[in-house]
Amino acid sequence: MNSLADPAKLVGTQVKKWRWALGLHGLASVVFGVIVLAWPGISVFALTIVFGAYTLAVGITQVATAFSSKHKQERGALILSGLLGTAVGIVVLAWPSISALALLYVIGTYAVVLGLIAIVASFQLPLDGHDTPLAVLNGLVAIVFGIVIFARPGAGALAVLALIAAFALVTGVSELVVSIGGKKLVEWRLQKLVKSKGTARPKPTAQASH
């Protein structure tokens, strides 16, 4: 009896942890994007502090969540993205006098690496046919943003701020959509688990009639 309930409960718990971490990152991204939009005259120093606090807080939370996960792929994705955010946050906060150009390169690198992690994780985590394309799209948006930053680092200040805000809002909203849609993911995984358990039952043999 417990052989079916325990794996089903484990799948649901693992997915919920990943949803929670992804949703937190999405919410933090949306808040960061709103701050940038609502503060168009933000200085490089203030933007550095806000971005550093944003990446550091999310990174630490993701690493802490990863150590409580028992799913190897989920734990690996959370650790990588968490360590990335933590490292970027520490570097940026420890260098508050960073130039605008250097800050853009840091943000661009963060976006590209984070996007690559998201794409790889989307194929390794137990996502269904609806959530996987959205997760991949989320990673591609981050990568495109980073490439644009590297391709046009000398763009005007307002254009750069608008680009940073757009990146944060688009990725944040898509992450929130994927995390909320994870409820359907749990149901799908449980149904698949029940079906596999049912088909694995041995068929009665002809000797039983003798």
In terms of DSSP E residues, the strand content is under 5%
Q: Supply the number of helical segments.
A: 7
- Average of the residue pLDDT scores: 75
Shape: elongated
Main sheet record: none
Short descriptors:
210 residues; 81% helix; elongated
Task: Report what the structure shows.
The chain is mainly α and 210 residues long. The protein has one domain (2-193). It has helices at residues 2-38, 44-66, 72-94, 100-124, 131-151, 157-180, 182-199. The longest helix is centred in the N-terminal third of the chain and has 37 residues, at 2-38. The chain starts with a helix and ends in an 11-residue tail after the last helix.
Quick overview of this protein structure:
The chain is mainly alpha-helical.
Question: Helix and strand layout, with pairings?
Answer:
Elements: H1 2-38, H2 44-66, H3 72-94, H4 100-124, H5 131-151, H6 157-180, H7 182-199
Helix pairs in contact: 1-2, 1-6, 1-7, 2-3, 3-4, 4-5, 5-6
